[in-house]
């Protein structure tokens, strides 16, 4: 057998990287290519049209049940996971992963499950640790791992995290990636896929549209935590996967960095709500002090003045914290 399924994941900075990647793919590629780019839910995507102008291979947007075809680039549409299943691509409204649908990890895991050593995984520019868990599954099943050089990527988070947690086979600039894939596709490989773990099978089942499939195994295969899911506020279970993976009981999946980032966003929203409350308290205390003075209740007015000043001081501290500039080095640290 030879490697004939190429799965590609990207996020921030991914359009530029994907254009360069597709431009380098040989016109006679004897493998199917499937691409997931993290994108906002809803609406439409012009990615397939953009990539069609970038290289020699035909590029199509995935529809449910589309057969995998050699020499073609299949692009995941927004709002649906793209899952490899029995030689075709299925679209699923399964639970979001790291807040994304489509998600790189979903595509990678499903490819690892059904194709084993025939898979080549490619991670390009993106933030946080998306793609790491999926690439680990590909390697466990005997597939090949290719990563864009972090210094070549507009956003190095995804490549860096894969390199830290997965034994990668090749690290190259994206301009060289397409030609490298062409050479790797031609290699013969032993049909010796690694074992399918219960966790991998469960996570692929959860990502599909099969009602209830795999969900009962989430608490059985994992360890309960005191963490909550940012998507649904349900309890998170820690799964025994490389680098740490979390799932809630309805299936939302999170990696550690994505979970921390989501908590940061929730904290900022809470702080803005607190600032709004303080501003409203300031305004109300001022109105009540004025009303008390008009009624000749000076002592009451002074108490409201004190509350206004306390709220103003607290709001000033909170506003300064929210609006202060953050240096890039601090953010990356």
Structure description:
This protein has 333 residues and is α/β, with parallel strands linked by helices. The protein folds into two domains: 5-185, Rossmann fold (3-Layer(aba) Sandwich); 258-332. It has helices at residues 14-24, 47-52, 104-115, 132-140, 157-165, 174-185, 198-207, 217-221, 256-294, 298-323, 328-332, and strands spanning 5-10, 32-37, 59-61, 66-67, 73-75, 81-85, 88-92, 119-123, 144-148, 170-172, 223-228, 235-239, 245-248, 253-254. The longest helix has 39 residues, at 256-294.
Brief summary of the model shown:
The strands form three sheets. The chain has a seven-stranded parallel β-sheet with strand order 3-5-2-1-8-9-10, with helices on both faces. Strands 11-12-13-14 form a four-stranded antiparallel β-sheet. A three-stranded antiparallel β-sheet has the order 4-7-6. It has helices at 14-24, 47-52, 104-115, 132-140, 157-165, 174-185, 198-207, 217-221, 256-294, 298-323, 328-332, and strands at residues 5-10, 32-37, 59-61, 66-67, 73-75, 81-85, 88-92, 119-123, 144-148, 170-172, 223-228, 235-239, 245-248, 253-254.
């Amino acid at each position: 057998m030879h490697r004939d399924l190429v799965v590609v994941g990207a996020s921030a900075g991914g359009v530029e990287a994907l254009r360069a990647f597709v431009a380098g793919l040989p016109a006679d590629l004897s493998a199917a290519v499937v691409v997931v780019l993290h994108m906002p839910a809803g609406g439409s995507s012009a990615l397939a049209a953009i990539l069609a102008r970038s290289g020699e291979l035909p590029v199509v947007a995935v529809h449910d049940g589309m057969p995998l075809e050699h020499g073609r680039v299949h692009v995941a549409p927004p709002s649906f996971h793209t899952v490899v299943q029995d030689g075709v691509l299925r679209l699923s409204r399964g639970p979001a992963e790291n807040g994304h649908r489509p998600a790189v990890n979903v595509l990678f895991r499903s490819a690892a499950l059904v194709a084993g050593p025939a898979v080549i995984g490619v991670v390009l520019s993106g933030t946080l640790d998306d793609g790491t868990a999926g690439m680990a599954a590909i390697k466990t099943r005997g597939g090949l791992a290719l990563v864009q050089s972090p210094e070549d990527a507009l956003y190095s988070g995804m490549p860096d995290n894969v390199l830290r947690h997965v034994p990668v086979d090749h690290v190259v600039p994206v301009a060289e990636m397409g030609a490298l894939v062409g050479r790797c596709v031609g290699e013969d490989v032993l049909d010796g896929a690694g074992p399918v773990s219960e966790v991998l099978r469960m996570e692929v089942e959860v990502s599909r549209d099969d009602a209830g499939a795999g969900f009962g195994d989430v608490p059985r295969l994992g360890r309960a935590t005191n963490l909550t899911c940012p998507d649904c506020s349900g309890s998170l279970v820690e799964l025994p996967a490389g680098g740490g993976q979390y799932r809630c009981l309805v299936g939302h999946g999170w990696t550690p960095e994505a979970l921390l980032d989501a908590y940061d966003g929730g904290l900022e929203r809470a702080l803005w709500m607190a600032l709004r409350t303080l501003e409203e308290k300031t305004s109300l205390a001022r109105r009540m002090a004025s009303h008390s003075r008009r009624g000749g209740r000076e002592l009451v007015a002074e108490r409201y003045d004190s509350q206004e000043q306390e709220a103003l001081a607290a709001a000033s501290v909170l506003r300064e914290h929210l609006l202060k500039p953050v240096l890039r080095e601090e953010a990356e640290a």
